[in-house]
User: Fold this.
Amino acid sequence: MLKQPRILIIGAGMSGLLSAIRLLQSGNRNIVIYEKRDTLGGTWRDNVYPGLQCDVPAHMFTYSFEPNPEYSTRFPKGDEIQEYLERVCKKYKIEKLIHYEKTVDSAVHQAGNWTVQTSDGAVEVFDVIICATGILHHPNLPDIPGRDCFGGISFHTARWNRAANLKGQRVGVIGTGATAVQIVPEMVGFAAHLSLFQRTPQWIFPMPNKTYSENQKQRVRSSPRLAARLRWIYSKLFQWTFSRAVIGNPFLLFAIQKLCQSHLNRKVKDPSLRAKLTPKFQAGCKRLIFGKGFYQAMQSPNASLVCEDIISIDETGVNTIDGRHHELDVLIYATGFRAHDYMRPMLVMGPSGRTMNQAWNQGAYAHRSTMVPGFPNFFLIFGPYSPIGNYSAISVAEVQVNYILKLLKLLETTHNNLIEPIEQKTRALQKKLEVASRKTVWLSGCRSWYIDPHGRTTMWPWTFERFERELSKVSVREFSLFKKANVEL
Ligand code: NAP
Assistant:
């Protein structure tokens, strides 16, 4: 029998836990998970703001092998997703593999292994690294002059200050993305006044939510077949509508635009407010927002929409270009994430001495979204070109983890221990992705986290079915396979 590779999974979020479960199921027991924080959960641990709900239906936002009948609403609440992940972790005995408060500072490939240094000074050696560090985990704090001078309470939405009492306070929210649209309806309920600083209005799709009764939950609990069927129905519904629209289906885009526009017309009667809330780009160009209650909230007597550009922040509030000073007690940054940093600032250095920063200096790229040439045995989950527009991140991660397992199997069956994709093959695939991206709605003229600093979108530009198909088998001729020197097999 071959010696099992020693595998490091970086990150104990949804995709890191999934990687561990699948590796254990495939017989690998030589696994360690490094998690930078003191609890698991990733996105669902970091985001605890009021009103947090996932925009993917509950029955579809589970691992395929582990339904969750306990979700109480069609669009699951953030804390229920976190509870689900904790339950799954316990059930599959993953907890003992996790080393908390371990931030990986560097991973350097030398002598056929990855030497990993963590911020506590420890150094360990691994055969394989699976980088499950997520996409939306580096908060983006805007570079507004005077930001640090604010004398009240301020925080980013992914670093919610649970100790802060927002009741009866003058609250400012900067940003109008999916996060702000969920926070605002909650906040108007208890703030003395809410000022929403909008740089760009957003389209909001009127998606109905519903609460599941105890009876309905019980039916799902007692029938795994029903759970699987619901998962399939919601997945197909999303694949055939939103996911197809955003990759360029003009009829679906037209219908979505119409529904968003009529939602706005119905909910906002004042023409001047409606004009301020009307986006100038095609619905779907930015991540389509599913929301309820935002338009009503913006018409509350204690809410104001500020559309003038912010020029500075001072001790008592925000200054806008029209000369107004907006006095605030609390300032919340709903300003999104630096999605294109991926695992960085971690230093990743391949055997030739080339770093990931150097490899990606013209923009991040990867072989089938999971490996980068020059970095053997270094696997990515949610690498470049893997997110699928308005679709379940869990389903995407499952496809990638299964693909990574196939690559590890290939090493075993060919009696090799190092694998990396061939640069030329990777670049050829990349070209196709870039050509297909031009047809997507994401490049139709808006600014969003879907577009990288080089003006490219790094989303998967085809259907989810194609993603599944392309990663369902390994094309051996796309890879170089090696044996480490002096290794006992
Ligand atoms: P986001 O969509 O990137 O929105 C950031 C907002 O901040 C935008 O309105 C942006 O304005 C604004 N902003 C950024 N810098 C600014 C500056 N210097 N001055 C003024 N405004 C500034 O971030 P997000 O709302 O956190 O959402 C990120 C993603 O997380 C979503 O697209 C979604 O994928 C995910 N998410 C999902 C859910 C859900 O499942 N329901 C909930 C929340 C988040 P511009 O538009 O002008 O750039």
